[in-house]
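Researcher: Sequence recovery benchmark, item below. Answer with residues only.
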């Protein structure tokens, strides 16, 4: 997300980096470049106009602060304005004084609404709550069955009364069922509809009025750009939505919808759908997204991903093995498996501070190859337990056998063994540099943490 915008802003900031004091001409040119970059990112024209005006107002005549050059000063101004544009954190979802809390999920047909309901239910379940999915789409064939499949995948039950009942009656019955069986939250999957379909809009409005929900969440496809903003305006006017869930942000390189919706509607983005898996739903943090847009990384989100994925005891055991120089290829394979669980590698790279600058310097030549993980895993699996524990035993004939068994080449086996030895040595160096009693925690166990796995290291990407 925002790949194109990030690259253009990085180029602009690099050009400004050679200046001392900003003149009005410099600011005017920078504003023009920012305007073009935002418009190309499919940001709403009105939003772009107001955003650029605020940047110019703050930047004209600005002296370079102590320790900051002109480029960094503009970055700070743009960063602050992006946060203001994206709005403050929406905060936690509202809850009812008496359970269950009702979350009404609405949106267009085909926008990923049912899957998003499953993701939201999975997130609530992960928080120790007792969600219940409610099927009210009685018009679309097999809609109830689809929600049941989603519910089974996230281990959340589905309440349904078939297609003979009105959505209002289904939701009322679901509330009664939830109170009787101890469910704390209802995630109501509604039928997809267009804002111009008055009968369907009246139907969902009737549900909202009959069982007042704590949240009315509109699911929007980020890849539709300005169409998503228009849909947001219309649904908000009819239903007074409380927040938005943007889906498919991992496939949207422009990001115009995310930068426009809050300003146009005045309502917050609550979640971002970042992938197809049911755990790929992120709480929206404007300050973190602003940092990603400017190529400044997002360490907090990266740490949260690691903490949610990596078992603390397992990480501690791994760290002890690294410290004792006992780290072997079995441990390396385990680390690769954990890395895979964190999500798509290109999204992880966006969270690493400085990666934007590296990409700009390399002309955007950062290649992420998830298939390489599979090949590395196959090579390690083709080794005997003794070879994985003692890689120094792997001679030429063994390398041929491992290559044949894994469907790879001897050159790939050689490359993996070389990278493993480099990473093992690097891990030892970083552990030796740490102060006693200051373990790296979960991050310290993931591929060595603290800088390990860079170019030429164990990560499955190349610069």
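Model:
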């Amino acid at each position: 997300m925002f790949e194109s915008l990030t690259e253009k802003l990085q180029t602009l900031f690099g050009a400004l980096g050679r200046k001392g004091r900003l003149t009005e001409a410099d600011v005017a040119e920078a504003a023009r470049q920012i305007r073009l970059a935002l418009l190309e990112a499919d940001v709403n024209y009105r939003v772009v106009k107001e955003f650029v005006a605020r940047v110019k107002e703050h930047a004209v005549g600005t002296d370079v602060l102590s320790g900051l050059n002109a480029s960094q000063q503009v970055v700070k101004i743009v960063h602050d304005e992006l946060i203001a544009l994206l709005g403050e954190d929406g905060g936690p979802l509202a809850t009812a004084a008496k359970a269950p809390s009702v979350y009404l999920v609405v949106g267009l047909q085909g926008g990923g609404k049912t899957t998003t309901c499953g993701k939201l239910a999975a997130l609530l379940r992960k928080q120790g709550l007792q969600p219940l999915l409610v099927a009210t789409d009685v018009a679309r064939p097999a809609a109830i069955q689809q929600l049941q499949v989603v519910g089974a995948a996230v281990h959340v039950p589905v309440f349904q009364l078939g297609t003979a009942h009105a959505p209002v009656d289904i939701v009322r019955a679901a509330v009664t069922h939830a109170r009787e069986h101890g469910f704390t939250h209802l995630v109501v999957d509604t039928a997809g509809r267009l804002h111009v379909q008055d009968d369907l809009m009246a139907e969902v409005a009737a549900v909202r009025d009959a069982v007042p929900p704590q949240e009315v969440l509109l699911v929007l496809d980020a890849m539709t750009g300005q169409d998503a903003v228009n849909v947001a305006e219309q649904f908000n006017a009819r239903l007074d939505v409380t927040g938005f869930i943007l889906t498919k942000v991992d496939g949207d390189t422009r990001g115009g919808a995310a930068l426009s919706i809050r300003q146009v509607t005045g309502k917050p983005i609550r979640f971002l759908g970042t992938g197809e898996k049911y755990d790929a739903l992120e709480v929206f943090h404007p300050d973190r997204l602003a940092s990603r847009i400017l190529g400044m990384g997002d360490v907090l989100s990266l740490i949260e991903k690691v903490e949610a994925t990596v078992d603390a005891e397992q990480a501690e055991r791994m760290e002890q093995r690294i410290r004792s120089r006992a780290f072997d290829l079995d441990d390396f394979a385990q680390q690769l498996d954990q890395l895979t669980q964190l999500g798509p590698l290109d999204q992880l790279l966006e969270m690493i501070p400085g990666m934007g600058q590296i990409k700009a310097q390399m002309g955007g030549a950062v290649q992420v190859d998830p298939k390489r993980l599979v090949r590395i895993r196959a090579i390690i699996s083709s080794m005997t337990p003794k070879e994985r524990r003692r890689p120094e035993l792997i001679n030429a004939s063994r390398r041929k056998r491992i290559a044949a068994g894994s469907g790879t080449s001897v050159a790939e086996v050689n490359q993996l063994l070389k990278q493993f030895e480099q990473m093992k040595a690097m891990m030892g160096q970083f552990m030796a540099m740490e102060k006693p009693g200051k373990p790296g925690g979960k991050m310290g166990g993931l591929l060595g943490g603290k800088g390990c796995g860079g170019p030429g290291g164990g990560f499955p990407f190349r610069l």
